[in-house]
Structure formats: C-alpha cells, structure tokens
Amino acid sequence: MAGEPKSLVEQRKLYPFQEDAVNTIFGKLVSMPSNANLLFQLPTGGGKTIIFSEIARRYIKQFNKKILILTHRIELSRQTNDVLTELGISNKVINSEVKSLPSQTEFQSFTALVETLNNRLQENDQFLEDIGLVIVDEAHNNSFRKIFHYFSDVNILGVTATPLSSNKKLPLYQTYNDLIIGESIATLIEKGYLCEGVTFSYDVNLSSLRVGNNGEFTVGSHELLYTQAIMQSKLVEAYEEVGKGTKTLIFNAGILTSRAIYETFKKKGYPVKHLDSTFSDKERADTLEWFRNTKDGILTSVSILTTGFDEPEVETIMLNRATKSLTLYHQMIGRGSRVLPNKKQFKIIDLGNNSRRFNLWQYPIDWKHVFAAPHLYLEHRYKDEWDYELENDYDLPAEIKERFLNSSAESFIIRDKYLLALRKGIKPGTVLDDSLEDHFNRIKDNASEYAEAMELYNLLTEEMKYRIKQFGRCINATNNYNDWQFQNYSSKLRRKLGNFFVE
User: Fold this and answer.
1) What is the pLDDT of residue 72?
2) Nearest-CA neighbor of 329 among 40, 51, 48, 44?
C-alpha cells in the first residue's frame, strides 16, 4: 500500500542476531498462556529497544491488540517513542501531563513512566484499554512490580542486560516464567557489534567503605574516601596515564566527589563538566550538548547516566567508585561500548576494585544461573579484603628448597601478577601461563634428566595447587573450576617437560 510506513526490518535492517532474537521471543510469546511472562537478556548496546519494538510491531499486526511499554526514565521513554514512530506505530507517551485518555482508538501502543502510570491506575484501573502485551524496559528494576497486578491476564515481556533483581527478597524468577539469553558481550565484540573494553585496574584500599541495608556501599563512606586528596591524585594520574585526550565519562557515588573532581580537573586546564540529579532539564541538556560537541571532554557525574544516555564517541569510562551491583557495573561500562567506524576499542579505568569483584566486563556470565540462583550474586559472593593467603607466595619446606638451588628464589605472587595484568589491559589468563613458565624453568634448571624432572615436578605439586587456588580467588572461580584448572596446568607442565628432556 503506497505511503504505508515500512517496518523496522526494511527501514533499519535488523542485524542477524537481532532477527534471531525477535523470532525466538515472538515464537515463545505466541505459544505461552495469557498469564505467563518472559524475560529477555541482551548486553547494553545490543539494541534491546530495536528488538522489542519490532516484537511490538509484529504483535500488533498478528493480534490487533495494543502494546504497553513501561520505562522508569524519561530518556528511555523518548528513545522508545522515536523507534516506534519510525516503525509506523501510533504511540502515545503517558507522562505527568496526561491525566486521562478518553479516546484510545487511534493509538496502537502506549509508552509510560512507571510512577506516572501507577498514579493513573490507582485513580482508574481501566485507564488503559485492550492491552495485549506489556513490555518492561530495564526489567531488573523492582519499581515495575507495583503495577503488574493490573495486567495479571496479559503476557509481560521483560528486557534487561542483567537479569538480576537488586532486591534479594524479590527475585525475577517469581515474576518471569522463563529466560531467553541473547548474544554474549564477547560474541558481540567478536562480530563487530560492540567495542572491545580494555580494563586498567588501580588497586584501592576499600576497607573504609561501609555497606548499607540495601547491600550496597554507602554514599557517605564513598564521599569520605574518594574526596581525599590521595584519591583525587590517583584519579588524575590514571586519566593522564590511560585516557588523556579522549572523551571521558566518570562515574561517582556522591555529588561531593563529583564536584571535587570537577574542580581538580578544571585547575589542571582540562575541559570538564559536572552533572548530577539536582540539575534542571535545561542545565542537563546544555551539559550533555557540550559533552557531545567536545572531542576531549570530561563529564563527571553521579550514576544518572547509566541508562537512557547514548554518546557513542565516549572512549574512556572511569569507575571512580565501588559497587556491589553487577547490574550497575555493566550499565556504567556499557556507556562506552558503542561501535563507530573509527572506534573499535574503549578503555575502562577501574578505581573501585570492581573488575576484581565481578571479573572483566566482557567475561562470560551464566545468566541462566544468575536467574535461577540470584542469592549467590547478591550476598557474600564478592570479597573486598585480600586475606593472608592471597598476599603471599607458597612457602616451600626447607628440604624442598634445597633441591632448587640453581634457580631464583624470587617469589611469584598471583595476586600481584593478576592486578598488573588488569592494569596493563592483558588477559588475566596469562598469569597462569607465566606461572607455568616459572615452574618449568625451575625444574629445568635443577634436573639433569626426565626422571629427576618428574621428581621435582612432584615436589612442586602443592605450590601449583596453591597458585591455582590464588588465581581462582582473584576471579571468583568455583572449586570445580580450580580442580579443572589444576588438571590442565599440571598436564601442560608435564608435556612441556617431556618435550624438553625426552626429545
């Protein structure tokens, strides 16, 4: 039909992984009973809005029912409205100015802020008519649950980058019957849809931080630590060492910290702006416009840009805070992951030991396990204090040391090697490669034949296990992983020794 809007697939062709996701999700929704709910996970930058908007288009076309899309940020609502409009869907944004909807015939979908819609539904539980599907953006946010009872016989599709509820008392599996996993961060990087994130980790003593009732480090204890001169200096040093001259986004826990950073960078002559939740809409818009137009601009903020903000030219993300939230960790870093023709990589400067707490951003996560057992990821999974075992190398008994007099007695501390690798942006797995090389050289330098080499190998078994355990602690690995890694490590070492002495 002439003049009919083209679908998103025609206008802005879906990437193959997005097309696969749409087909999988839509097929599942069609087969589900009317009161069942579905959750979809896809990393930040994967195009969740594009995917669920195309699902909305197909749903409207097949079932001739209306769609409700829920967000918790006005920026997300606007982004969604833009995509729906591009699709040719007649959408109505329900904001604070919309008090009633006497005629809904002309609308195919509604985009609503959760708090606004909750107020309208409390006044009139029939505020919206003929809703066939509810789509929840940033579904890990618990604020949406308060209105789900108004749509108890309607399918709900939740979308999120991290299917982990921030409230351990309200796990997502209580709301959603099933979870569909999209492409991983590593796969999207490999296929060129996301930038590769290179992490530079600067060890910070977090012993002064306190944990609040919500399980997160408190803002007050953050302010006391990160406003100190030594931390301000460390931040500037890290920026000058890694991110100088790049468009940089700095995330902080408190306003005092962010303002202090603004003053510090300003005194050094760097182009910098500060942004927090107290800014008016105009001040916020002006600040973001300045940031977009300033090639080497530095924007220091207080976590308000974790969602609903998209500036593809960001080249450096600075985590000037610690968090116990896996979701927040991924949201902050995701702001730098957008791909451009001349941008295939971005930098992550970690000043909160976050990469040690959660592992590197691009490392695979078993989201099915997170969904099924969220308590393991919300409680005491991540440690912030290194204990004695991590601070020291294995102490060989004196009689064993006597067998290795021809090699260096220099200690090999896994924790130190691991932190150095993070700081240099090197894959942590190389630490075990270096350790294996250390063991090989010590055995080689002190054995004259293969039989003696294997005898020395056996004498170092406990030290090998100790190092594998240290490495496992660094990356929060399971005991099964440590057992597998030891078998792999010892097998490689035996083979290397065999090749050297036998061949």
Assistant:
1) 77
2) 44
| Alpha-carbon span 395 to 374, nearest angstrom | 38
177 and 253 part of one domain: no
Total count of domains within the chain = 3
CA dist 11 and 449 (Å) reads 70
Can you tell me the distance from the alpha carbon of 142 to that of 171, in angstroms, rounded to the nearest whole number?
Answer: 9
Which residues, 6 or more positions from 477, have their beta carbon under 8 angstroms from its beta carbon? 471, 485
Whether 3 is covered by a domain: the verdict is: no
Residues 333 and 399 in one domain: no
Helices (H), 13-96: 16-31, 48-63, 74-87
| 163-212 pLDDT, tens digit each | 988 677 788 998 899 999 999 999 999 999 999 999 999 888 888 888 88
Q: Please write the tens of the pLDDT for every residue from 101-128.
A: 878 888 888 898 888 888 888 888 888 8
User: Residues near 82 by Cβ (< 8 Å), separated by ≥ 6?
Assistant: none
How would DSSP label each residue in 265-278?
HHHTT--EEEE-TT
In which element (H, E) is residue 68 found? Answer: strand 66-71
Give the 3-state secondary structure of residue 240: helix
Q: pTM of the predicted model, to two decimals?
A: 0.71
Distance CA 82, CA 8 (A): 12
**Token pair 């500037």 is at which residue?**
236
Chain centroid to CA 469: how far? 25
User: Residue 386: its pLDDT value, please?
Assistant: 41
For 246, half-sphere exposure in the C-beta direction (CA atoms, 13 angstrom radius) is 24
Query: What backbone phi and psi angles, to 5 degrees, belong to 7?
Result: -75, 165
CA distance 248 to 24: 37
Cα 357 from Cα 329, distance rounded (Å)? 10
CA distance 414 to 463: 11
Same domain, 348 and 204: yes
> Measured between alpha carbons, how far is 274 from 263 in angstroms, rounded to an integer?
9
Residue 88 in domain = yes
- Are residues 164 and 31 both part of a single domain? yes
Q: What is the pLDDT of residues 284-319, one digit of tens each?
A: 889 999 999 999 999 999 867 655 567 889 999 999
- CA-to-CA distance for 162 and 341, rounded, in angstroms? 27
DSSP count for the chain of H helices, then E strands: 21, 13
Task: Give, for 440, the enclosing helix (H) or strand (E).
Answer: helix 430-446
Last residue of one domain, picked from the residues 156, 184, 212:
184
Cα dihedral 356, 362, 363, 364 sign:
positive
